[in-house]
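Possible race condition, two jobs.
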Amino acid sequence: MNAAAPTPQTHHIDVRGLEPPEPLERVLDALERLPEGDHLCILIEREPRPLYRILAQNGYGHATSALPDYLYEVRIWRRVPAA
């Protein structure tokens, strides 16, 4: 009998109001603990452009949405390696 794959979860962290580099440090720490297949969703008040290069270099994908009140939501996931 085959066990069903676990349902991916989305983990949320809110780094609004933190001074650099603390938001970046918290995101990187959360990514180290992110279970395989899950997503991390961050809420921040500025677009985290330095984070994008780090994500790309370490095999993560991301999607950023601008929200009302000058907030950004960034969803991050591990990219599946090419076969």
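Job #2 (started ~2 s after job #1):
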Amino acid sequence: MDSIIEKIYNGSLQPDAYINPQDPEYRKLTKQTSDLMEECQKRFSENDFRFIEGIIDLYGKTYSMHSTASFVHGFKIGAMMMIEVLDEKG
């Protein structure tokens, strides 16, 4: 089994692939989103629906960037905590 460092090096460590929110509200919201998208596809013209999909895609990209930044920030805070814990002066 590869170490975490080896997984980071070879690109096989993908923390987001294992995130599965356990909040029951998450599944409810996902279902509502899917239902609304189906309704939009029926209600709007193909061009209008593609426009809506474009907006959603842009939102997804910005959300992904925010999630990445949050992960990096949290990781740095965790590393700083470990340094503080292991520092003999502390």
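Residues 33 and 66 are 20 Å apart (CA to CA).
Logs attached separately.
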